[in-house]
Design a protein that fits this description.
This protein is mainly α and 104 residues long. It has 6 helices and no strands. It has one domain. The chain is globular. It binds iron/sulfur cluster. Iron/sulfur cluster (SF4) is lined by residues 27-29, 49-50, 53, 55-56, 59, 82-84. It comes from Lentzea albida.
Length: 104
């Protein structure tokens, strides 16, 4: 059996520079096909998984913080569903519309 980290584990190591935070052990997506969260036509299904996740708040805060504190490309290229938010929703949080005309 291959015990090398793969997929989600590798991503967490890249994102967090080591082992993923302990709350990740409770992630509802840990046994879910990761492509679900990066396929635009499946956004609603991915959000449904997040809606049932016991660590949604931790995940959302972590992702938004990571994007906010990293290089601009992290925010500008936010993609996929993380913490119950699509990439477009996270970009709107990072770059809120300045007036009502921008909301449309
Ligand atoms: S909120 Fe969504 S992306 Fe975050 S750990 Fe839970 S299921 Fe995974």
């Amino acid at each position: 059996m291959n015990t090398e980290p793969h997929g989600y584990r590798v991503l967490m190591k890249l994102l967090f520079g080591g082992e993923p935070p302990a709350w990740r052990e409770q992630a509802a997506c840990s046994d879910t096909d990761p492509t679900l969260f990066h396929t635009p036509s499946r956004t609603a299904a991915a959000k449904a998984v997040c809606a049932s996740c016991p660590v949604l708040a931790e995940c959302r805060e972590n992702q938004l913080s990571w994007e906010a504190n990293g290089p601009a490309r992290y925010r500008d290229n936010a993609f996929g569903v993380v913490g119950g938010l699509s990439g477009a929703e996270r970009r709107r949080i990072h770059y809120p519309p300045r007036n009502a005309k921008d909301v449309a």
